Amino acid sequence: MKKIIVANWKENLSVKEALVFAKRLKSGKNQAIIAAPFTFLPALEKSKNIKLAAQNVSAFAGGAYTGEISAKMLKEAGCSFCLVGHSERRIYFQESDEEINKKIINLLQYDIRPILCIGENKAQREKGLANNILEKQLLLGLKNIKDVSKILVAYEPVWAISTFQKSGVKYSAKDTDIIAAHSFIRNFLAKKFGAKARAVEILYGGTVNPQNSKNILKLNEVAGALVGGASLKVSDFNAILKNN
Ligand code: PGA
Q: Is the CB of 208 under 6 A from ligand 1?
């Protein structure tokens, strides 16, 4: 089955490097989506085998909000997807579930598919609160949204994201943890949103790399991956794209 592989470049690379990456990208079995910095978007729009995502969007539709980029502007720049609520934004920029919800509503108005990132941190997991956190982030993030069929959810446990692991060998979540969290999310969405929730793709993110991607992507519960560190080298990303 075709899976969705999202590259999250974060605040890395340059337009020139991005264009080289796009040229070397192999159209694999899976669908590549590149979440690029805003200034790369116009240059990447012409690349045929890429679908474009932004990494963030304004919570406001437009107006006097210096420094913000609206959903309408992202549409104009060729984005069909946008990350929302990535843990780095929640942690470093104090993004709240309420803001995340506004962003999702704005994106849907412009037919841009939001990739809602959710996930518990280590302390929350150790206290047995992982599912409570997922439930809260879904409930508030998707408040007042009747049709969730255009939403993608990325389960990204904070403790498994490579850049939050300060030392040692980086590790992803275990298969059993991924299956448990994805099943919880799937059941929660079905209960809350009914049949429309069936279309929601649930991705996994957190230290996905060419070594572990085959194993992760073969899980039925996993519709794809959100890849940070390993998306910066086109050879690694190509390997993930063709894996499964
Ligand atoms: P990682 O990042 O693959 O480097 O763990 C994933 C993410 O932050 O989305």
A: yes
What's the 63 CA to ligand 1 centre distance in angstroms? 32
* Cα 64 to ligand 1 centre (Å): 32
| Contacts for 145 with CB less than 8 Å, ≥ 6 apart | 101, 104, 105, 108, 151
pLDDT of residue 188: 97
* Nearest-angstrom CA–CA distance, 216 and 109: 33
Residues 6+ apart with CB under 8 A from 97: 85, 136, 137, 140, 141
What pLDDT digit, counting tens, does each position of 217-244 carry? 999 999 999 999 999 999 999 999 987 6
pTM reported for the whole predicted model: 0.97
Nearest residue CA, atom 9 of ligand 1?
Answer: 228
3-state secondary structure 29-45: CCEEEEECCHHHHHHHC
> Quick one: pLDDT at residue 109?
97
Q: Is 227 in the pocket of ligand 1 (CB under 6 A)?
A: yes
